[in-house]
Amino acid sequence: MTCERVYLFDTTLRDGAQTAGVDFTLADKIAVAKLLDGLGVDYVEGGYPGANPTDTEFFAEKRTTRAAFTAFGMAKRSGRSVSNDPGLQGLLQAAADACCFVAKAWDFHVREALGVTLDENLAQIRETVDSSVAAGRETLVDCEHFFDGYKANSDFALACARTAYEAGARWVVLCDTNGGTTPEEISEIVTAASAVVPGTCLGIHAHDDMGLAVANSLAALGAGARHIQGTLNGLGERCGNANLITLIPTLKLKPAYADRYEIGVGDEALEGLASLSRSFDELVNRTSNRYAPYVGANAFATKAGIHASAIVKNPRTYEHVDPERVGNHRRLLISDQGGRSNLLAELARVGVEIERDDPRLVDLLELIKKREAQGYAYEGADASFALLARRTLGRAPDFFSVESFRVMVERRHNALGELVTVSEAVVKVVVDGEPLITAAEGIGPVNALDVALRKDLGRYQPFIADLRLTDYKVRILNGGTEAITRVLIESMDGEGQSWTTIGVSPNIIDASFEALIDSVTYRLLKADAPAP
């Protein structure tokens, strides 16, 4: 059976840039384009050349080798000729393979926002596509608010799509711009649109305001569309866009789609999907969603003991796909609900070998449950779990010991008369029997402690030179003045490998320092640092 080709169009560098808190530099955009090109998407939309200096410089040269490098912009303005429209000319002069133009498809917007007649809007679409095709660009038209427009005036919305297609657009993309359309409506309206634009030239652009962007994209595919637009990790304005990181494995691994369609993403790229997702989050300085489908740290995590036992016997019991196919892995969480099966599976995963009938397993399991009752949560702190297991089994070297630490926070006026808060930490450690005392200032007490702890560990210093903290989370477990505080710290080495450690204490600084010690110790263990 011959599979139909489905084309993936990534809009991360435009739609993703509209995400609250995300601001791409030129270097960021170049890095993301490279990630996408390696992934195997068919189009990489880079933004709006001429809109700002970053996008203009980004389009000074072609940034992809495989994917069609695509410039985005508005259709021709009313009252201007093609040659006298700076926005349109900016796209045609960009170093791009394709141009994607957004055009109004809702009669309300045409009259109220553009202030033109419906016929004038159709003429603008036609002239825009004509000029792009004449310039040798593969041309796409995003019909903005198409589904709202169809509900209000189906004849006009369809006329917009037909006009773009007849003028020579390679893809006419139907946009659910406010994310308010259901899969049933998507299917019905895309079917109607396919009567005026062939499915092989029809696309879908879905927003996630109801959490349905992925479902709507698949509904459009089922109704005949063969082009899907989305972003990495679902970034986008408001609630985001269709998540390509979810769509890609669904199209590749689910028989309902894999047996009918093919995409440009290969099996090798699919196996790197989880890593790519995390790398992208790191690039935009966002915490990865641990519950993200396919690629999240908890996507294949099971906590209850009876479920874990079933997974050990048959992994597919609670897993809809093989985790390794998307670069993820199975996790049987260690908690007060877990039993021996969970523990053995997690020990094997973190590299601790032990016989199933080893009596120390019972001691370790009881210790874990006792500590979880105190506030520890090892399902989110793999590194601390590995250290706890090794210490209990007598397999964790004491690379260093901490004799004491002190933190001072002072608020004062500096020499310029400015009110500042200064944090200073002093840490005393013992390495190979030799006491080492270090002091450091930091941005807050935890940062000061971190800097002081890693400032001088004697002969172990080279092993932690590339260690850095990437995330810090605090949770208060019970209220009142005697609240228990749980701290999770995520660390990363120079190779991009990350791990999480935990600390629990009534004192937030003490909990933080416990997690910091585990982080440094785990790094030394990973680096095969020599034991004392």
UniProtKB/TrEMBL annotation:
<dbReference type="Pfam" id="PF00682">
    <property type="entry name" value="HMGL-like"/>
</dbReference>
<dbReference type="InterPro" id="IPR002034">
    <property type="entry name" value="AIPM/Hcit_synth_CS"/>
</dbReference>
<dbReference type="GO" id="GO:0003852">
    <property type="term" value="F:2-isopropylmalate synthase activity"/>
</dbReference>
<dbReference type="InterPro" id="IPR005675">
    <property type="entry name" value="Citramal_synthase"/>
</dbReference>
<dbReference type="InterPro" id="IPR013709">
    <property type="entry name" value="2-isopropylmalate_synth_dimer"/>
</dbReference>
<keyword id="KW-0808">Transferase</keyword>
<dbReference type="InterPro" id="IPR054691">
    <property type="entry name" value="LeuA/HCS_post-cat"/>
</dbReference>
<dbReference type="Pfam" id="PF08502">
    <property type="entry name" value="LeuA_dimer"/>
</dbReference>
<dbReference type="InterPro" id="IPR013785">
    <property type="entry name" value="Aldolase_TIM"/>
</dbReference>
<dbReference type="GO" id="GO:0009098">
    <property type="term" value="P:L-leucine biosynthetic process"/>
</dbReference>
<keyword id="KW-0028">Amino-acid biosynthesis</keyword>
<dbReference type="Pfam" id="PF22617">
    <property type="entry name" value="HCS_D2"/>
</dbReference>
<protein>
    <recommendedName>
        <fullName>Citramalate synthase</fullName>
        <ecNumber>2.3.3.21</ecNumber>
    </recommendedName>
</protein>
<dbReference type="InterPro" id="IPR000891">
    <property type="entry name" value="PYR_CT"/>
</dbReference>
<comment type="similarity">
    <text>Belongs to the alpha-IPM synthase/homocitrate synthase family.</text>
</comment>
<feature type="domain" description="Pyruvate carboxyltransferase">
    <location>
        <begin position="6"/>
        <end position="271"/>
    </location>
</feature>
<keyword id="KW-0100">Branched-chain amino acid biosynthesis</keyword>
<dbReference type="InterPro" id="IPR036230">
    <property type="entry name" value="LeuA_allosteric_dom_sf"/>
</dbReference>
<comment type="pathway">
    <text>Amino-acid biosynthesis; L-isoleucine biosynthesis; 2-oxobutanoate from pyruvate: step 1/3.</text>
</comment>
<dbReference type="GO" id="GO:0043714">
    <property type="term" value="F:(R)-citramalate synthase activity"/>
</dbReference>
<keyword id="KW-0412">Isoleucine biosynthesis</keyword>
<dbReference type="GO" id="GO:0009097">
    <property type="term" value="P:isoleucine biosynthetic process"/>
</dbReference>
